[in-house]
Design goal:
By secondary structure, this protein is an alpha/beta fold. It has 2 domains: 204 residues, 3-Layer(aba) Sandwich (Rossmann fold), CATH 3.40.50.880; 103 residues, Homeodomain-like (Arc Repressor Mutant, subunit A), CATH 1.10.10. It is built from 14 helices and 11 strands. It has a 7-stranded mixed beta sheet with strand order 5-2-1-6-7-11-10, with helices on both faces. It has a two-stranded antiparallel ribbon with strand order 3-4. A hairpin with a 2-residue loop joins strand 10 and strand 11. Helix 6 runs antiparallel to helix 7.
Amino acid sequence: MKKVAILVPETAVPAAIVDPRYLFTAVNEFFRSAGHQPFFDVQLVGMSRKVALNGGLVVIHPELLLEKSGQMDLILVPALSGNMAEAVKRNRAFVPWILSQYKRGAEVASLCLGAFLLASTGLLNGKTCSTHWLFANDFRNMFPEVGLAADKVITEQHGLYSSGGASSYWNLLLYLVEKYTNREMAVMATKFFQLDIGRQSQSPFMMFRGQKEHEDVEILKAQEFIEKNYRCKINVDELAYRFKIGRRTFERRFKKATSNTPIEYIQRIKIEAAKKQLESGRKTVNEVMYEVGYNDHKAFRDVFKKIAGMSPQEYRNKFN
């Protein structure tokens, strides 16, 4: 029987604790129905016997305390809420426990904003992970040693897993069920919970919010110029000249400050504007294309699909 620990941090999102427990418990019932023994031993593990969440509206009673728990096979770190730096600080007692468990063979999976707590252990340094796209800039600032795959629904490296934003943690949970049991049980869980097992990208749901929490004044001005003039044709030479910086130096500073090259930033701003028009307006795809400064339909479609994960027409059909 595989031992699964679901952590109960302070400031955790209650659903990110309840849902995994419900899923693994349901899989145990699937095994019982098939005449087999339950596969998972699921325990809630916390720093105290009573954890109040959502301002006291939800109270969870962990079954095990950190100091009294044994060796686990899988540890789930649920999503945190509120200010991430403060949330990590309040839950730092979990860090040495997670490190000890991992060194003795346990695998660790973070759900959505649980990536902040997992990253604080240092285990993700030099590796990649995902988290909620809305907190991508905060994550990069707090953990520059970790490669953020902001568009991914699931990442896996060396027994460390992460999921993208919000309900995408169900995809990671299904993935873990299949890995630990078999495809049949994962499909059964998919049907029981009526989930989409195949989603791999959260790109269609992402809104681009340029990284502006930096101290490079000229680059910040360049970002603002791009955002105000996205309908025009903007090139890197023009930007470098406008802000009196050599092109190579400008590109280096822009990438360092924003985590995007100037070209990527321009494309993302244009596509974000296109997405908003496709969501709410009645303009055709071609009209939107011209509106955001593209003249080549293939180029617009290719860039849109690269950033949004689907074609402009598919995006409009899905979100309009």
